[in-house]
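hey all, quick one before standup. I had two proteins in the batch that finished overnight and I want to keep them in one place so we stop losing track of which output belongs to which input. First protein below, input sequence then structure tokens straight from the run.
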Amino acid sequence: MMDQGIKKALLVVLALTTMGEGSIFGASSMVVTYEVAGVMSSPVLSSYTYDFNSIGTGSKSNMSWTGWGGTGTFSSVKVNPPDQYGGANNSNYAFSSDSTQTTLVLSTRVSYFGMWWSAGDSGNILDFYSGATKIFTFTSSVLDGLSASYNGNPNSAFRGQNSAQKYAYINFFVQSGEQIDKVIARGSNFESDNWTLRDPAYGLVVGDGATLPGTAVAQYNVNDAGSQTTVTDVSQINNTSVPEPSSLSLIALGLGSLLALRRCRKV
């Protein structure tokens, strides 16, 4: 019969490992950061970007994208040519609205999403899903405090135009809980470009920093019941890399505890 002390330690290891995967607890968190003015592409290593340049302009459906270890499908997207409102590096961009949503469905779940947000409106919304469940909802009002250095199109062909609206690259990092496999952009006149994905959580790739790239502006926390709260007090936002230990680390910790327990019992 298994020693009761060892049995309890094994149960602790199993529970901790499952918590690391976000399987037992439904609570999740996502941190939103923004890059310095003028940046139009993701700073995250080992990520993959879709720039909307290879599919032509107009309304599209079922446009596939492969590149980060999985396949994504834009079930619906409207692509506009570059103008004063959008188009990173003077290129095509995605345009979304309440009637023309941009929907990206992924075959594998990811921990990071980024995009260049241009001609920002307060009614721009991103919904993030895990399976059929909406996990997070981003509303662009959290970016109202961006300085005047973000005003106006920074591209050479349209520099300074549309000076009353913001242009910024935004990062979304899932720090705990469920990863995401669908993104929907909607709301009034939502222009965006350079949609970027990465599967591993930030901190698990060689070269990742100790803190998340960019300036933290909001943290979305979702409880077990699915209710979201938004933290905008910068001092309360957790912008550290991979706040939860990985499963492998937890297993190693548990095995170390087992070995220590066995040694103690031999004394």
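OK second protein, same deal, sequence then tokens:
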Amino acid sequence: MKVNADLHIHSKYSAAVSKGMDLPEISKEAARKGVNIVGTGDCLHSGWMEEINALEERDGLYHLDGTYFALTVEVEDVHRVHHMILLPEISKALELREDFASKSSTLDMDGRPKVHLDGAEIADAVLDAGGMIGPSHAFTPWTGIYAYYGSLDKCYQEHAKDIPFIELGLSADTDYADRIADLSTRTFLSDSDAHSPRSNKLAREFNQLQITSLSYKDLEKAIHREGGCCPVLNVGFYPEEGKYNHTACTRCYRQYSAKEMDAYKHRCPVCQGIIKLGVRDRVDSLADYPAPIHPDHRPPYLHLIPLAEIIAMAIGNKSPYTAGVQKRWEELIQGRTEIDVLVEVDLSELRAEPEVIAAIDAFRHGRVEVKPGGGGKYGEISLPVPAKEKQRSILDF
């Protein structure tokens, strides 16, 4: 069977997260989105763990109203690098929590705890607990692994061989990551890192997996690409949308090359702001290949944004939350899910204005234009056909 999975979210117990991120609300919105498996996030937090444990356990996943939750948590190491962890059962989460207790003072203060261990030490504890670990949003300039290390070996040391996946994050896609030879054997995950259950946050990036049953064991097999289980599609943003894609000044947003940044000693000659190295240039510095070389096991990557964002662009609205956008969104998902509309359904079956249908088709086929962001300013996407008003920027991601 083919399922959709968003394995990285945060709960109401994490800082700067909507109080609506509770299990019933996540389950409801995941069903409307079309996501079958959602990571719990924050599973080392005692309050969240108690709520998860109240759900019905089914083959290592936790079930609520048709949505299956996999035990996950993101932790920050002593070097500020973020790691994504998946665990097979509550007892293993408790075991890992106990291991981290003396190394963290924030286990019950923040769903994303800070652990005073390095990546190799965290991996050692996770593997001892029977879990899986990999870098979260690997290319993010502030807390991604490649902001601090040049390779998985440098971070995870002797456990690098045991890292089955990396999470691409909103900053990168398959083309970026497959320029690095060391990553050719790893599974790529595309997840939302959602802080809100809204349809333009939850599963804004997601994975389609081929599995035989809804179970943790098959989820594990899919990540390891074993027993006929594997990812079949990654879905996510254009990296150029990211606010640190190009090297740029963090004050005036003027963009520079990496060589110019070095020549100016990281100071903008125009406004004296700090020039921040962009993800694109960081990938160039790490790359083994001038162009991506995709291994045979790598699934396609589809660049999409949430349906409400597409509708807003198509009709010229500034916000995906306006009544007009939400009305059209509700009509389009009637009897189906958002992912069905974005990825699966024949466009001739959809009932909406021609410009909305054309916009969905443009994203499906990559016929959009992207003006890259940088220095903290998001990139902008425009459609290939005129909208009713000036195209909006992709903000609030």
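Flagging for whoever picks this up: Residues 151 and 236 are 23 Å apart (CA to CA). Confidence is low (pLDDT under 50) at residues 387-397.
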